[in-house]
Design goal:
single chain, alpha/beta, TIM Barrel, 2 domains, 9-stranded mixed beta sheet, 17 strands, globular, binds S-adenosylmethionine, binds iron/sulfur cluster
Length: 390
Amino acid sequence: MRQGDRSFGLYVHWPFCKAKCPYCDFNSHVSEQVDYARFQAGMLAEMRHLAGRLEQPPRLNSIFFGGGTPSLMPPDLIEAILNKAEQIFGFAKNIEITTEANPTSVEAASLGAFKAAGVNRVSLGIQALDPAQLQFLGREHSVNEALDALALARDLFNMVSIDLIYGLPEQTPKKWRSNLQQLVKLGLNHLSLYHLTIEPKTIFYTRWRRGEVLTGPDEVVANLFEMTNAIMEKAGLAAYEVSNYAREGHECRHNLTYWQAHDWLGVGPGAHSRFDNSGRRISLANRRNPKSWLETVEFKYHGIEKETIETPNGWASEMLMMGLRLKAGVNLSLIEQKCGPREFWINQGKLAMHVNDGRLQFLEHQNETRLATTPEGRLLLNSVLADIIK
Ligand SMILES: C[S@@+](CC[C@H](N)C(=O)[O-])C[C@H]1O[C@@H](n2cnc3c(N)ncnc32)[C@H](O)[C@@H]1O
Ligand code: SF4
C-alpha cells in the first residue's frame, strides 16, 4: 500500500471473445483476426502515457487482466505488459496479478504459461454447474471442462476464484443449495456469485422485451441471495461485498481498490482510470471500440476519449456507490475531508429513514464513523443509493 493505506492498481482490458454470450454487456467482441503485435504496442504506449499523468507513479499493489476473455491473450503479450508495468511503476511486495479465464480446455492449457509470465491469481468463469443452465447462458464449455479447468487452476495457483451466475428461470433453491454445497466442499477461498441481470443491448434484453422469462421471480431470487449468504457464511466465506465471498485475507485486492475508491489506471479499449491528483479526482474513459482505440493510440499514444475532473459531489457519489457495496461500508469522515460537509452530498432525511427502516447502519470502527448496508439494504442497494445520493 502507498500513502498510508491507499492502494494503486492497473487494469488491462482484453476486448475479444470466442463467442458473445447472450447476457453479456461487457466490452467484448468476436473477431477472427487480432493483430497481437499492434495491440501490444498500443497497450505499452498507453501505459507509459497514463503513468505520465500521475504526479509520482506509485508502486502497483495489483494488476487485473479482464475482458472480454484475457485467457485468449498470448502469454508473451501478458509477459510484455507485466515487464513494462514493473519497469514503469515497480511492484509492491506481494503484488496480486489476476487474470480472468474462461474454462474451455484450450484456454485452461494456457494457464501454466500465464503463471510463468507472472500471473498469480485466476478468476475462472464457471457460471453454472448444470448442463441445461450452461446451455441457457450460451457458454462454450461443459460442466466437466469447467471442473477440470478449476482443478488445474488450483494445482497451479494459490489464489483461485470462480464466477457463477444465479437467479435463472428454472433454478430452485434446492438445486442452487446443492451447487453451493458442492463448491463449498472443494474448500475454495474466493467466489463471485452474481444475480443474472438483463442488460440493455444484449440478446437477453431483446428476448426479454419480446416477453420471454429469463430470470427467476424476484422473491425467489431474493430468497436465493439470502440462502447464498447463509451457506457461504457458515462455510467461513463472508460476503465482504454484495456478490463476493472470501475467507479472511483472501479478498480480491484489485477489486477492493475500486470499492474503496482508491487509484487505478486502465489500459485498453473501454478501460477507465481514476486517481487523485493535487486533491482533485480525475476520471478517464478510453474509447470502447477496439479498432478505434487502436487507431487513436497509434496516433496519440493513448486511447482516452473522455476526461473529467470530478466535482466534490461526483467524488462523494463514487465513494458512496462503491463503498456501500462493501460489508465494511464507507468512512463518512474521510468523504467529508475530501468533499466537504455531508449535508452537501447526502440526503440526511433519506439517510435517517433507511437507518430507521434497517437498511443502513452506522458502524464505529477505530475512531471512524462508517456507514454500511445491512443484509436487507444490500439486496436493495440501488434504490437506497438513488435515495441518499445528492
Ligand atoms: C468480464 S465478465 C466475463 C469473464 C469471462 N470472459 C467469462 O465469461 O467467464 C465477468 C463476470 O461477470 C458476470 N456477468 C457478466 N454478465 C452478467 C450478467 N448479465 N448478469 C450477471 N452476471 C454477469 C459473469 O459471472 C462473468 O464471469
Ligand atoms: S461473458 Fe465472458 S465470454 Fe461471454 S461475451 Fe462476456 S466477456 Fe465474453
